[in-house]
Amino acid sequence: MEHNGERPGARAGQNRQVRNMGSRPSGAKTRRPVARKQGYFDYSLLFIVIFLCCFGLVMLYSTTAYTDMIAHKGDMFYTVKKQAVFMLLAFGVMLLVSRIDYHFWIMLAKYGYIISLVLSVAVIFVGKSAKGKARWFELGPISFQPAELVKIALIVALAAFLNKMYPYLKTVRVLLVTAFLVILLAIPVTVNNLSSGIIIMGIGFLMAFVASKQRWLFAAVIVVGLGAVVLAYQTGLLEHFLHGYQMDRINAWLNPTNYEKDEGYQILQGLYAIGSGGLFGRGLGQSVQKLGFLPEAQNDMIFGIICEELGLFGAVLVIALFVMMIWRFMFIANNAPDFTGSMLATGVMAHMAIQVLLNIAVVTNTMPNTGVTLPFISYGGTSLMFLMVEIGLVLNVSNQIQAKS
Amino acid sequence: MKTLLTGHRKGIVTAAMILSLMGVGLMVRLGYLMLLDADQYYLMAQELHQRERRIKAARGTIYDANGVPIATNKTVCTVSVVHSQVTDPETVIRTLTDKLGLEEAEVRKKVEKRSSREVIRTNVEKDLGDEIRECDMAGVKVDEDYKRYYPYGSLASKVLGFTGSDNQGIIGLEVAYESVLKGTDGTILTLADAAGREIENAAEERVEPVAGKNLHLSLDVNVQKYLEQAAEKLMIQKQAKQASGIVMNPKTGEILAMVNVPEFDLNDPYSLPEGTDTSQESAQDLLNKMWRNAVINDTYEPGSTFKIITAAAGLDSGAVTPESTFSCPGFYVVEDRRIRCHKTTGHGAETFVQGTMNSCNPVFIQVGLRMGVDVFYSYFERFGLLKKTGIDLPGEASTIMHKPENMGEVELATVSFGQSFQITPLQLITTASAIINGGRRVTPHFGVSVQSADGSQITKLQYPVEEGVLSEETSAKVRSILEQVVAEGSGKNGAVEGYRIGGKTATSEKLPRRTGKYISSFIGFAPADDPEVITLMTVDEPVGVYYGGTIVAPVVAEFYENILPYLGVEKSS
């Protein structure tokens, strides 16, 4: 194996382990439980997640206390209580998932893909709609967005598929099939929810990028894609592809003050919040924009409130935490016991990173407005639940990393 | 089981690097927004968040000559409810209904209305406001505010004027001294949420108000009261439309009293008198009429009182001496006109002094004609009759006079005894003052000094004086003649026991002529040899006997009997 040739010395033990695990069916039955006991567990990732969740609750309380007090007869904790309950539940689910061997999910990947495809098509016709777009299923008190399920199903499905295609990863054909699988799932989601569509495409793109040998192709796709969008905008062709409201959002992004009353309102209010923050912010709890000025303050725009209250200092720390999280994913992906685990960690990394980047880019008006929440911090039960399941998956992958000598 | 290849690891690291770099890029973007663009957004946000609430500045007090406040501020309360803070709406409704004497349904509607702040009642007396505040009901706010208050009600209403809802002067001295009295309003800048609710405990920025300055007047409340009583009595007795009076110090121009009855209640200036017919005119026109200060806003033909001026001009120009003799057959022919004397049988042979005592028109026509248009007109101008008096009240009316090139003998003749031109009563008394005080044309005024709100600084107000419009010698002659008018002539009803009074009566027929409508007046001053006080009283459209000498002179005499001792004018031996 070329592997061995490249990694002498320190890596030898790990390589042996990998080899041993590879030959599990024949002789490792007695070793596996032992390996598990000695198994690595990425506490750094766990603590980053716990910290982000707690920080999220504090910020959520700060953001919603005043509006809740008015809307819910003086109950300042209305939103936070709901979120805390969800968080505990999601945390439990995460611990549970982290105990289940991820190969179990890989076996179910095919069904997961099919079910999520069916659901995301079905929601278009029978889902609950908001602002003219069908996004939800209502199951009693729980509302459920298939788009959230789609992301995790895609990560698992791609990990399984690419693992199966392992010998052919060099070929362009594998890439084309991967692209087909991703786009097939992205289309019904994009119909209702552009931002989720973008995230799904991004996850697929990054996972394929890591798996494939044809890296130049990806760079070419980015260059051509960006060029096409810019060209389409310049020539006015873009207007024919996008909905009217999407075009408005692009215009509002380029010049928010001209759309002060409608599309640009949220952006401007977000900028007011950010601009009011300065270096160290107004202080925790001192945001003014949360008093009903900033729409979706507890949701998509919560980062704006963080900026206003904690300043550049706090905002940079939050981004740094997410960057640290990316590096934990990278570490786990790099040291995963097998290609599947590595792909799973890569997929989750792609999902988290893209979602964070999109959210902050929108709040800072670096890109046009799409509704994306900030992971672990924004209010929202289902979204948090699926995020935690993904963390659980990655933790399980980390758990199967063999301790280094 | 497939292993991870180095190529894959490189891919993973590359992906993580790219994603992290994008994160760093966003940090840079944030730094740009929050440090370089921050001021711009902070200011825009500040503008959005702050609600400005004005703190009214206390308006300066107006004091009379004795230091008695006649226009001041009263603390009143505004009672309002904040819906979201009300915990016990029933108690609030019951208490407010009781205390404020309002309809229960009305209060209920306001208390139960979902609004940030609902005003229940404004201008609530302070005692009642305190009582409501002491009930300590959640969500009920009692705010204090200033309201202009006039302790004497209708006293000198048309002179003082009143203020509007923004504490700004509407008429009278309140307008003329607006910049002195007003002060500068303060502001409270408070944070408010998107729905406009003010945020409790948020830091407030406060700019304190600066109170207005106080104004001291020459107006004397006691003199004003006497004059008002006199004018009211005259108006009622003679069933006249209105009666007015001015009392002035002829040496300084300080006005002691100015009355136009009927007056109105300054604390309730927008209520027309009961029984007013509003079918013919709009309420606003009627209010404007009610507020009108006739002695400065309206002109009239002065009639015989103007003979003081003709006499002064005639004596000063040498056209006539007190001893000059005239003959009155009851009329005088000028060009083709036969101008009648009020005594149609004629006064016969008389000296100029006697002619003045008789208020004989033919005498004054001849004096006028002897001077000629140019000389007479130059005196008219020199005495200041062509320009406004410059009184410190708004809306003074201008003199309506012939142009000299259009004045023929007939016009000259009629002007000589006070007809065919119009001046304000104030103009008449001001000009008469200049003639009897030794030839100093003073500016009539109310304002004497301005005092800073804390009383530390007092600024005397200065008014222009024009010296030498008449020689002292002529002035003395006119005084002596006018004293004889009261002592033995047509103004004898104006005499006051123990005082030397000078004066002149007038009965002017209103335009159009022959409708039986008159303005009767009397101008009198005391002491006659060194006048300290001059009074002009007029009565508009008296019913029955209408001669000024008969109906107005005795009223002024009675008035003088009361105020001359009060003013310290010594009796002559």
TrEMBL record, chain A:
Topological relation to the membrane, as annotated: Multi-pass membrane protein
Keyword field contains Cell cycle: yes
GO terms, biological process: cell division; peptidoglycan biosynthetic process; regulation of cell shape
Pfam families, sorted: FTSW_RODA_SPOVE
GO molecular function list: lipid-linked peptidoglycan transporter activity; peptidoglycan glycosyltransferase activity
Region (Disordered): 1-31
Descriptive protein name: Probable peptidoglycan glycosyltransferase FtsW
TrEMBL record, chain B:
Domain Penicillin-binding protein transpeptidase: 245-560
GO BP terms: cell wall organization
Membrane-spanning parts: 12-35
GO MF annotation terms: penicillin binding
Protein location: Membrane
GO cellular component terms attached to this protein's record: plasma membrane
UniProt keywords, alphabetically: Membrane, Transmembrane, Transmembrane helix
Domain Penicillin-binding protein dimerisation: 55-201
A Pfam entry, by short name: Transpeptidase
PANTHER family in UniProt: PEPTIDOGLYCAN D,D-TRANSPEPTIDASE (PTHR30627), PEPTIDOGLYCAN D,D-TRANSPEPTIDASE FTSI (PTHR30627:SF1)
Record-stated family: Belongs to the transpeptidase family.
UniProt-recorded name of the protein: Stage V sporulation protein D (Sporulation-specific penicillin-binding protein)
Natural source organism: Cuneatibacter caecimuris
